[in-house]
Each structure stands twice: as structure tokens, then as C-alpha cells.
Design goal:
This protein has 233 residues and is α/β, with parallel strands linked by helices. Helices cover 30% and strands 19% of the residues. The longest helix is centred in the C-terminal third of the chain and has 12 residues.
Length: 233
């Protein structure tokens, strides 16, 4: 069965994040939270809109005085569209993710990033899945050396990341096919441009996880949409 993950973007405040996550209770089990710092990407999301790591709610969570909204009802996947994902890895972990996604284009050195992946503590690797994301414009050969050190990959559907309502770049289909041929068992996510029209084609190409944002939030039948996506073959 295809895994469906809801993306919550955009949101500027912790309260807005809470409301968006709350609207999906009973509909989906995994939420992708997009962290956007305004440096690696033009957009900013909480906590970078209000004090960064010094934000009141952010501090309460990392101090274990509260959790992410509805933490006991969802698994959380963090899409780290930030310039400091590696440097602040330990801080992001304290928020309680089940998965963390690093953007390859944000890395100053792919060799240093590979060394970082290889050095992640085994206890963390047993409890948190690690993925890498990349834009359609990136040469796929650049990530081949990283794939043995991650649990999954996330193909971005367009170079315009951190924005909502962006259409799918059709070159993504061939990129997914190439990855599927080279890595038959690799879990492949697709984020950006997933809708009723593109989802069947993405699954046919080899995607196993679909990230849906605008299509889900704008749907009058969210449960039905999730079920239709899950049953694609």
C-alpha cells in the first residue's frame, strides 16, 4: 500500500501549526512538518518567524515541558529546509521526529555530509529514519554515494521548494524511474505537485510515498482522497 503523508505548509505561528495538524485528526497518521529558515529557502516557518530556537513554544518542547501538537496521535516527519540541519541535528531530534529529511543542496560538502551520515549514533538510527531530498535540477549521480547511508529519498517535484500550490515538473517521472531501476528496494517519496492527476503517474514511475499538501487541505473529501492515493498501484 502506498504511504500517504500530509505536509503542513505554510504556517507562521505555533498556533497555526497546531490548527493545521488538528484538522487532520482521524484522517492520516503521518505529518510532514516543513522547517523553513529564510536562508536556504526564501520562506520562513515557525520557529524561524518568531525568535528561531529561542521561540517560547520551541523551547518548551525541547525541554520536554510539552510536545508537538497531538504528538500522541501522529508520527512526525521533519523536512529540514534549513542551512543548519547538520549543525543543529541534536536540537531537532529533541522535538520528537520519526523521520528527518536533509536537503542535499543545503550541504556545503557532500563528502562531509556523507561522513555525518555514517557517524550518526546507532541508537538514533534505530529510532529515527534518515532521508535525503533533492531538486529536479540536481544531477542524480551526486546522491548515489549517499543512498547506502539513508533509509529513503525524497524527490522534490519542483525546484521552487518551501512554497505551496506549486505544479509538478514532469522530468520528475523519469528521475523516479531511474532511481527505481537502480535501487529496486529504495523507498521513494515525492513532495510538491502531488494531486489526483499526478499521483497515479508517480506511483507507476516507482514512488512509494506521496506527500500531499494543497490537494489534501483543499479537498472536500479528505478521507476519500487519502484512500484513493493509498490504493494506487
Amino acid at each position: 500500500m502506498i504511504e500517504i503523508i500530509a505536509s503542513v505548509l505554510p504556517f507562521r505561528t505555533f498556533e497555526e501549526l497546531k490548527n493545521k495538524i488538528g484538522s487532520l485528526r482521524g484522517i492520516i497518521s503521518t505529518i510532514q512538518i516543513d522547517f523553513c529558515d529564510g536562508i536556504f529557502v526564501p520562506s520562513k516557518t515557525w520557529p524561524f518567524t518568531f525568535g528561531g530556537f529561542d521561540d517560547y513554544d520551541f523551547q518548551k518542547i525541547i525541554k520536554e515541558e510539552q510536545g508537538l501538537p497531538f504528538w500522541d496521535e501522529f508520527d512526525f516527519e521533519f523536512d529540514l529546509m534549513v542551512a543548519d540541519a547538520v549543525e543543529n541535528f541534536d536540537t531537532y531530534i529533541k522535538l520528537g521526529p520519526k523521520r528527518m529529511i536533509f536537503h542535499v543542496e543545503a550541504m556545503k560538502s557532500l563528502e562531509d555530509f556523507k561522513n555525518f551520515l555514517e557517524g550518526i549514533d546507532l541508537y538514533i538510527r534505530d529510532n529515527i529514519q534518515i532521508g535525503i531530498a533533492f531538486k529536479p535540477s540536481m544531477q542524480l549521480e551526486n546522491i548515489f554515494s549517499l543512498i547506502p547511508h539513508v533509509d529513503f529519498v525524497q524527490c522534490m517535484g519542483n525546484d521552487k521548494i518551501s512554497l505551496s500550490g506549486i505544479s509538478l515538473d514532469e522530468k520528475v517521472y523519469d528521475r523516479i524511474k531511474l532511481l527505481r531501476e537502480k535501487y529496486p528496494e529504495l523507498p521513494i517519496e515525492i513532495d510538491i505537485g502531488v494531486n489526483e492527476e499526478t499521483a497515479p503517474l508517480l506511483v507507476e514511475a516507482g514512488a512509494t510515498k506521496l506527500i500531499t499538501g494543497s490537494a489534501l487541505f483543499n479537498s472536500y473529501d479528505k478521507i476519500g482522497l487519502v484512500e484513493r492515493f493509498q490504493n494506487l498501484q
